[in-house]
Amino acid sequence: MYTLPQEIEVWYIIPAIRRGLARCLTGHHGVSYDAVGKMLGISKAAISQYVNNKRAAKIKLPERAMKEIGRACDKLVADYEVRSTSDVHRRKGIHRDGDARKGDAVSEITRILKFIRDKKLVLEVCEKHESGVLEGCKEIRFDGEGYIQ
After folding, report:
1. Structure pTM?
2. For the chain, which residues score pLDDT lower than 50?
């Protein structure tokens, strides 16, 4: 059976990137789950699952990819941090029109995917994740044409 590179990205890599962004935005920058959900175009329940290791827990991204996620996180916060309607309090994650611009997050996720492909980074996809421990891991690498195990 053959797995398309795009399937690996959709099943494993994009969720892992979203997990990294969700953790960074909520943990390091204090952005609300609701605002992060609007930024990433997913529900706040999905954000909760990413933050609490209930979604995308079986993949480990390399440190270089995590640094790119950190840069994307900082950029998203800088782009979305605007004054509230009272002009006194600051809110994170909401654009002037009251809704986050999802296009910026899509652009950043796309940029990170390209970075992973271009650098041919090794990813670890694991069969099990229990109590913070990954087991049965396999390496996946993009070889220029597709992902190989």
Report:
1. 0.80
2. 82-99
pLDDT, tens digit (0-9, with 9 covering 90-100), for 52-93: 989 998 888 999 999 999 999 999 988 776 422 333 334 444
Q: Closest Cα to residue 63, out of 104, 20, 108, 92?
A: 20
Query: 20 and 68 in contact (C-beta within 8 Å)?
Result: no
3-class SS letters over the chain: CCCCHHHHHHHHHHHHHHHHHHHHHHHHCCCCHHHHHHHHCCCHHHHHHHHCCCCCCCEECCHHHHHHHHHHHHHHHHHHCEECCCCCCEECCCCCCCCCCHHHHHHHHHHHHHHHHHHCCEEEEEEEEECCEEEEEEEEEECCCCEEC
Which residues have a Cβ under 8 Å from the Cβ of 74 and sit 6 or more positions away?
none
